[in-house]
Amino acid sequence: MAFKSDIEIAREANKKPIQEIGDRLGIPTEHLLPYGHDKAKISQPFIDSVQDRKDGKLILVTAINPTPAGEGKTTTTVGLGDGLNKIGKNAMICIREASLGPNFGMKGGAAGGGKAQVVPMEEMNLHFTGDFHAITSAHSLLSAMIDNHIYWGNECDIDLRRVAWRRVVDMNDRALRNVTLSLGGVANGFPREGGFDITVASEVMAILCLAKNLKDLEQRLGDMIVAYRRDKSPVFCRDIKAEGAMTVLLKDAMQPNLVQTLENNPAFVHGGPFANIAHGCNSVIATSTALKLADYVVTEAGFGADLGAEKFMDIKCRKAGLRPDAVVIVATVRAMKMNGGVAKADLGAENVQAVKDGCPNLGRHIENMKKFGVPAVVGINHFVTDTDAEVQAVMDFCASLGVEAILNKHWEFGGEGITETAKKVVELCEAGEADYHPLYGDDLSLTDKIETVCKEIYRADNVVMDSKIRGQLKEWEDQGYGKLPVCLAKTQYSFTTDPTMRGAPTGFDIPVREVRISAGAGFIVVVCGEIMTMPGLPRTPAAESIRLNEEGLIEGLF
Questions:
Q1: Is-contact 361 505, C-beta < 8 A?
Q2: How many helices (H) and strands (E) does the chain have?
Q3: Which residues pair with 386 in a beta bridge?
Q4: Alpha-helix runs per DSSP H in 341-407
Q5: What proportions of the chain, in percent to the nearest 5, are helix, strand and coil?
Q6: Fewer CB within 10 Å: N-end or C-end of the chain?
Q7: What is the pLDDT of residue 1?
Q8: Concatenated DSSP letters for 230-248?
Q9: Cβ within 8 Å of residue 272, ≥6 positions away
Q10: 3-class SS of residue 136
Q11: What are the two backbone dihedrals, phi and then psi, of residue 255, each rounded to the nearest 5 degrees?
Q12: Nearest CA to 181 among 225, 219, 213, 147?
């Protein structure tokens, strides 16, 4: 049986005017700032007006470590939101915006799939409402002002060897990872080394997604450390006097974007920090506002639970005062077989033993989620090649760990295909058993926080940090940053720093390559292994297949 592509399904959507979607949430038309007929931003005055309302229930969707077989975390997030509405609940979803770099690289779009999508899919995966462009522009303004400050006398006495602020662009461009700036003579400034990260790795992105309002945004931008003096004292963004103009550029980008699912249920799509170098969650302002407007809010965290869910719990929830009520861990039979040693080309053949061999990866994520005190259910994202015996093997494994696993068919049937999981989530939420707590306390040393995540979540034997890194962490503690949480950046494909080590490996160390401070966002970035903050394009990038057809419609985006 031939199935329609995601983009074909999205084009056939019976979208409602965005004013009708807003009306369902009680948002008056005057507080919707429309971008066309099917998307709008929510005004800050309306957001302010609902802050005294009671919060709804918060559900996190996370997953096993991603594999080339595909897991469907966003698809499950969208499907679960539709499923909750299908059983009569007032529910909405909150997801991140898509970065152009991965869209044109390997990953493709990020709006769900099949009958569980958010629309307008094409716009969401391209320029959308311009939020990422605003972030890139604000970041670039600060970059220009730093070099301009140095050019006109360097009043802050910045050490040119210690400019920490890198440039960004929203594209995978490995040639820009390391560059030389200001060549060409006296008129162009003082030559120095620099580099580019992808926009989603910018601290400005992380700040926008953690800020509670414009005042908080401007304060956090001012707190960013952009360089150091010869005595190693920090130079802040506010010393360059850039935070005010940056806030102006980000004024509209701070407002959450309202769109809809294929089943016309409301969705906030806002922000998109890199799930490696940053915390990988949609904005706090979108999530907290959604909790005031709906009884159930479904959100997701980037990559697998070892990266995204840990940061959701230890950074986003800690910083924003959020308390999740339930977790859905997404897994697929195909991914279990790949974790069990089966090649991608052979995933279509039944192999119950390989499923069993791959289940420990899922088991480790289940155990990890229990450490945060939030009850979980496993959602098995159904593929047509799955056999009953393979699905049962996953269910039996989960039952042995005291967690229910439910087969979901939202990709094929939309909300109707995930109602059983929706009912289970409601049951978990209403039982009131959630006792959320972060993995570690604020008062632990930064070194101990890093070791706690590496040993408790990744199951590493040791954390390898040289004396220079340990000294830097101690220096930040002495400067008053010791209570910050840590944000570990490593490969998403494995619990280790080796992307080829699938399953649930043991007997390994986690090497820490460098540490960076995101003083404005409020966390310490810990770069482990060979992870890149500027990805490159694959040998055959998705961009080669993306084009306009004779009717002017986009092809190849999905």
A1: no
A2: 21, 25
A3: none
A4: 352-370, 388-400
A5: 40, 20, 40
A6: N
A7: 52
A8: TT--EEEHHHHT-HHHHHH
A9: 96, 97, 98, 99, 132, 200, 205, 209, 282
A10: helix
A11: -85, 130
A12: 147
Q: Where are the beta strands (DSSP E) in 140-241?
A: 158-163, 167-169, 179-181, 192-194, 196-198, 225-229, 234-236
Which pair of structure tokens corresponds to residue 522?
């409020």
From CA 489, how far away is CA 450, in angstroms rounded?
A: 11
**Average pLDDT for runs of 10 along the chain of length 558:** 76 93 96 95 96 97 90 94 98 94 73 90 90 97 98 97 96 94 93 94 96 96 97 96 98 97 97 87 97 98 94 96 97 94 91 96 97 97 94 97 97 96 97 94 97 98 97 96 96 94 95 96 94 88 89 82
Q: What b/e string do you get for 131-158 counting C-beta neighbours within 10 Å, with b at 16 or more?
A: bbbbbbbbbbbbbebbbebbeeeeebeb
Q: CB-based burial of residue 78 (10 Å sphere; 0-12 exposed, 13-18 middle, 19+ buried)?
A: buried
The residues that bridge with 61 in the sheet, in sequence order, are 300, 328
Locate 157 and state its tokens: 């006495």
Is 368 within 8 Å of 312 (Cβ atoms)? no
Separation CA 387–CA 351 (nearest Å): 9
Q: What is the pLDDT of residue 276?
A: 79
- Residue 514 structure tokens: 């460098």
Coil vs helix vs strand at 431: helix
Cβ atoms 376, 387 nearer than 8 A:
no
Residues with catalytic function: 73, 75, 96, 107, 275, 303, 383, 411
At position 179, the amino acid (one-letter code) is V
Instruction: State the Cα–Cα distance between residues 477 and 472, nearest whole angstrom.
Output: 9
Buried b (16+ CB within 10 A) or exposed e, 235-254: bbbbbbebbeebbebbeebb
Other Cβ atoms within 10 Å of 555 Cβ, number:
13
Phi, psi of 345 (to 5 degrees): -65, -20
pLDDT, residue 224, reads 98
Token digits of residue 275: 């799930």
CA–CA separation, 443 and 131 (whole Å): 35
pTM above 0.90, yes or no: yes
Rounded Cα gap, residues 373 and 156, in angstroms: 47
Which pLDDT score is estimated for 110? Answer: 67
Burial class (CB in 10 A: 0-12, 13-18, 19+), 228: middle
